[in-house]
Amino acid sequence: MAKPPVLTPQSEDFPRWYQDILNKAELADNGPVRGTMVIRPYGYAIWEQMQAQVDARIKAAGASNAYFPLFIPESYLKREAEHVEGFSPELAVVTHAGGKQLEEPVVVRPTSETVIGESMGKWIQSWRDLPLLLNQWANVVRWELRPRVFLRTSEFLWQEGHTAHATEADAAAYARQILHEVYEDFMVNVLALPVVVGCKTPSERFAGATNTMTCEAMMGDGKALQMGTSHELGQNFARAFNINYLDDTGTQQLAWTTSWGVSTRMVGGLIMGHGDDAGLRLPPRLAPVQAVVIAVRDDEAVIARCRELAAELEASGVRTRLDVDTSTSMGRRVTDWELKGVPVRVELGPRDLAAGEVTVTRRDDGSRVAAPLDGVVPVVAEALDRIQADMLERARQTRVARTVPVATVDEAIEAAATGWATLPWDRVGAEGETALGAHAMTVRCLIRADGAVPDSVDEPDLTAVVGRSY
RNA sequence: CGGGGAGUAGCGCAGCUUGGUUAGCGCGCCUGCUUUGGGAGCAGGAGGCCGGGAGUUCGAAUCUCCCCUCCCCGACCA
Predict the structure, then answer these.
(1) How far is A1 from A368, CA to CA, in rounded Å?
(2) Which nucleotide lies at the shortest CA–C1' distance from A23?
(3) How long is the CA A30 to C1' B68 vector, in angstroms?
(4) Nearest nucleotide relative to A332: CA against C1'
(5) How many angstroms separate the CA of A406 from the C1' of B59?
(6) Burial grade of A402 (CB within 10 A; 0-12, 13-18, 19 or more)
(7) Which residue has its C-alpha nearest to nucleotide B69's C1'?
(8) Distance A90 CA to B69 C1' (A)
(9) Interatomic separation, CA of residue A155 and C1' of nucleotide B49, rounded (Å)
(10) How far apart, in whole angstroms, are the C-alpha atoms of residue A116 and residue A67?
(11) Could you give the C-alpha distances from A256 to A235, A242, A301, in angstroms and in order?
């Protein structure tokens, strides 16, 4: 008797599968205003893990957290021409407050280059004040015409770093340091998503940037997702906000700035990068719950032993949950924990207890092993390590298998229907980008032949990575 | 914002074409009993201004108009 699937199968309807998983894994709901989302406790626990682990890396890179206002004078946005042009279509503007029309409208921040630039201009006097390395965790608003929970919402949560440097080279180096040591490292080693890191083409650049670099991940349907960006802003914002300093020869100089961010979009990337038809699959280093100890039967001895096992695991540093809800059937509980993507299940029933064993099951591949009851901790620890490594390797293989090297734009259009294509950037050009656009495809990023991030998009012999994207 | 589809119980849907007793079904939820090694079974029960507003009519879930929201496909983005 085949039961109906828990989720719409990915192969049948991927967007529907995504919707199903948001509901059934209790990750998020739509908010009452179009384009907004309610992040439910389990979804927020995932975000908190991301925050904590990204924040630690940001601090290790020398930046300090601060907080800048939600409301920005409209005039600030207008000081940088490209910036305001890029953002004006998606601004939410407050025209009335305190029961009156405001003399100058304020915008709800779509990003904070401008307010932070204003403060930097005040704070920086001397070359001794540089570099100034700031970060803030905040919500931002970009009014979206076609919202999708976690991927594109009108309000989202993120981290935005803003730095000022004495030289272009220093700014460029720091933007790259964040890209690699914070973002790429977190995505690869924690999220187990083997991102491709490169430069955006001029047409895909952040509004006001001189160079935009990106981490691109491949989703389960072969589409690309921009998971994080790091920008070199040149002296554009320094000029607009008078961020200047006296150098060691006593000459006034304009600073060089950067900005960089990752958002709740990463939650969507995590779902679509690893999820399968049974639900979420969370990499152990990120999972809010790494192991769940399940009492298979309503049996006093079993439950007592489960409590001990959970306590042992927790004490060993494994984020553990105890499931002794024996009024719900075993099958149902297993299904629910699978939906939530908990990496390891430790299942104990009367049979296991009698045999002095416990069953340890991996979420990622469904494999199970019997572990001695008095030696569960090392077995679980080993399983968590292997899952982390295997998930990354599996995702890498999938990405490689679905990335096709081609020689022409036409071939790229064909190849990127189901995955990514790579081709020489000099075969694309502006006309090529337009042709790709007609097929809902874009150059996701430019990389060197060896996969490294180029110093500039003007380098010769760059490779373009082409795909459809979210 | 353009094209297409859809809003009826927490979720998924039927009813609408051809207006007419008390608006149904599956899942979920509550209570009880029996169960529990991969989405349990039986019995009883709670839960609806039929997306919102205006209209047509003796009478509207059903017909008309406006608005809102969601999903899919395009143009914009973390």
Answers:
(1) 24
(2) B11
(3) 15
(4) B39
(5) 68
(6) middle
(7) A34
(8) 20
(9) 32
(10) 9
(11) 5, 11, 66
Locate all alpha helices (DSSP H) within A265-375, ordered by sequence.
265-274, 300-315, 330-339, 350-355
A140 and A77 in contact (C-beta within 8 Å)?
A: no
* CA–C1' A15–B7 (A): 19
User: Which structure tokens are listed for A26?
Assistant: 């209790």
In A28-131, which ranges are E strands? 28-30, 37-39, 64-65, 71-73, 92-97, 100-108
CA distance A358 to A370: 6
C1' of nucleotide B41: residue with nearest CA = A329
**Angle of the A376-401 helix axis to the A300-315 helix axis, nearest 10:** 70
Q: What's the rounded Cα separation, in Å, for the pair A176 and A213?
A: 8
Q: Mean pLDDT in each 10-residue stretch from start to end of chain A (470 residues)?
A: 70 84 88 84 95 98 97 92 86 85 91 96 97 97 86 92 98 98 98 97 91 95 93 96 97 97 95 93 98 95 96 98 93 94 97 96 96 96 98 97 94 90 92 86 94 94 93
For residues A463 and A332, what is the distance between their CA atoms, to the nearest angstrom? 48
d(C-alpha A108, C-alpha A139), whole Å = 10
Nucleotides of B under 7 A from a protein CB: 1-2, 11, 35-40, 68-78
Which amino acid type is present at position A450? D
The C1' atom of B24 and the CA atom of A338 lie apart, in whole Å, by 34
Residue A14's CB: how many other CB atoms inside 10 A? Answer: 17
Please report where in the chains the tokens 């006001």 appear, as a residue. Answer: A208
Per-residue buried b or exposed e for A336-352, using 16+ beta carbons within 10 Å of the residue's own CB: bbbbbbbbbbbbbbeeb
Q: What is the DSSP letter of A7?
A: S
Which nt is closest to the CA of A325, judged by C1'?
B36
Task: Decide: residue A177, CB within 10 A, 0-12 exposed, 13-18 middle, 19+ buried.
Answer: middle
Nucleotide nearest to A338 (CA to C1'): B38
CA of A27 to C1' of B23 (A): 33
Structure ipTM: 0.84
Residue A2 pLDDT: 44
H/E stretch holding A60: helix A41-60
Quick one: pLDDT at residue A1?
A: 32
Reply yes or no: is the peptide bond before residue A69 cis, omega within 30 of 0: no
